[in-house]
Amino acid sequence: MTAIAGTPVVNSWNEWDHLKEVVVGSADGACFEPTEPGNRPQVRGREGAPFPTGGKSAQAVAQANAELDGLARLLESRGVSVRRPGRHDFGRALRTPHFEVANQYCAVCPRDVMITVGNEIVEATMSRRARYFEYEPYRHLVYEYWEADPRVGWTVAPKPTMSDAMYRQDFWEWPVDERHRRMHSSEFCITQAEVVFDAADMSRFGRDIIVQESMTTNRAGIRWLKRVLEPKGFRVHPVHFPLDYFPSHIDCTFVPLRPGLVLTNPDRPIRQDELSLFTDNGWELIQAPEPVLTNDEMPLYCQSSKWLSMNVLSLSPTTVICEEQEKPLQDLLADQGLEVLTVPFRNVFEYGGSLHCSTWDIRRDGTREDYFPSAVYEPLV
Ligand code: ARG
Q1: What's the structural domain count of the chain?
Q2: Residues within a 6 A CB radius of ligand 1
Q3: Closest CA relative to residue 216, chosen from 136, 131, 141
Q4: Over the stretch 226-275, which tens digit does the pLDDT of each residue have?
């Protein structure tokens, strides 16, 4: 990797251009996510059962790593340069002036914390205590890219306190009918008092970036992103999926595949007034088929839904990687004219993500384009 005239070493403007370099996560040292104000992990199908604490078993780690390594090999066989996170002691407790937490989480999902926005790396604030230092396993790479090419930008979002006051505890107690009643208010387990976002709530479409308001990203976080990115020529659009009562990370809900085509989640339609951005600009939305696994069949400790099925990784506008057993989705994508590659990945589900979550694209071909020429946009200033 050398800095040459031509494509900067960090260059990724959307989710689909030809992939050249990517970070693939690792389960090394992974721990169970602790119960904390922003997260109430549950053993699947056993409400109230105590959720395990401390480190994951050696077997669970080895099984996830085998699949992550398999993804890395597939990517390399396609000419993609693959990088991995550094070591981090996730078993270590954290104590800051504002909170304590018994252990940290893992580096399986770089997507959640790191994002490439054009030629710039942005580190998210994060929204959970156990993930406060999750940028650290990637810092050796950030420094490498930043030193290698003066065109590479690096922006670190302000760290929130994650004190009790940042969270809304009663959120967890709301019965379903109350969630339904409040579905348009976009109030979740974080308040608006501080800037909060996870990188995985964003999806990149050239000069336009959509950001989901969620349990992991608040309106202050979206304002911060607008204020930082608008002067650099981006347009930041908040988006909402009102029927998702526990929204977190957009990549199992609304997944662009190539210019003009988005894979959508039939259980979570985009808010009606936000749909026109896509339909007015000639985009087609296609619904993902029912996943092969039901929610009840997802791994016992997995906190994500069956819709991990649609968490695909694009290698180019014509090639996509899909989980090996998701045949209905593979068929749909093939019908759209895509070349579909597959890898087994179900042992990674326990760590909250699938193929898109467990990667962070550093370099793709291409440049900033306008895919929404007739968008109506109100900048902050
Ligand atoms: N909340 C999503 C769901 O359960 C999972 C999102 C996973 N994405 C990620 N980047 N970790 O459907």
Answers
A1: 1
A2: 109, 111-112, 200, 248-249, 251-252, 304-305, 307, 352-353, 357
A3: 131
A4: 999 999 999 999 999 999 999 999 999 999 999 999 999 999 999 999 99
